[in-house]
């Protein structure tokens, strides 16, 4: 993800997220059955 902060702001308007050391996570229950992890591009 090129801009993790922008992505997180947009996503958190719709579903809760969990913070991890390299990014954030959306649980499967909140993402139509598919858990998603977002990490900033290097």
TrEMBL record:
Superkingdom of this protein's organism: Bacteria
Name by which UniProt lists this protein: Uncharacterized protein
Organism: Amycolatopsis mediterranei (strain S699)
Source lineage: Bacteria, Bacillati, Actinomycetota, Actinomycetes, Pseudonocardiales
